[in-house]
Amino acid sequence: MAKKILLTGASSGFGKLTTLTLLAKGHQVAATMRHVDGRNEGVANELRNAGAFVFEIDVTDDASVESGVKEAIRDLGGLDVLINNAGIGVLGIQEFFTPADFQRVFDVNVFGVQRMNRAVVPYFRAQQDGLIVYTSSLLGRIAMPFYGAYQASKWALEALAENYRVELSGFGIENCIIEPGGYPTSFSDNLLSPSDLSREASYGAFGQAPAQTLATFEQVLENNPHQDPQKVADAFAELVEKPRGEKPFRTAVDFIGMAEPIHQYNDHLEKIMTGLYTNFGMQGMLSVKR
Description:
Elements (H helix, E strand, L loop, with lengths): L3 E4 L5 H12 L3 E6 L7 H10 L2 E4 L5 H15 L4 E4 L14 H11 L1 H17 L2 E6 L12 H21 L4 E8 L28 H14 L7 H12 L8 E4 L5 H21 L11
Parallel strand pairs: 1-2, 1-4, 2-3, 4-5, 5-6, 6-7
């Protein structure tokens, strides 16, 4: 059955690919992004030509979110799915990132999701149905050097999704997380660098480690054609199309050896959650009301 879907961050990377994939499968998609009439005008027109509705939404702006969501629901004629995909990454030694740098990352990756959810959830509660999908990362489950602010935001996003999962299950609203690994997309071309490099000299040669690590990882991606970003878009589509109540809460998507241990990690946590919720008589909150 075709779904009415609202997706943020549709201008590039997973967002653009997922929009095109969902359209090809017959779904209606409201693709949102910043600068629709500016630097993203070309991709906006491309998505329109493919059949998408395109709206201007800046997830860091309350008014933009509220007006964009209302326009999307109006033009779609309803809403079944929200995909929180807009995000920003970083690269650098964590100490060099100022509090303002962290605030910028969290404003998109965490607070932006909260803004979108607050705009959409009342609609979903009223219809006693809906799906919210969160674009997290394998780095929302583990920590690797030089991505500190990004990882902190994705760990926070995972907690946000956990709480929405249990607090909205009784209203028939599903919450699910997609956890991609690293892929060759434009995402890595727009990584936020730390704004305070005054301490770099005190790190000596190690100060160059972030750039060297990224170059090595890009080489790994180049040598692993199976790490195809289209597979992440396909994972979003598969999740959207799974029957209500049968969707996994977390889905790791990676083909360079990281997915399996993360699957084990996620399965173990789910068992812990089930045990704890059962002990407190709240196990029903872990399953969406059908």
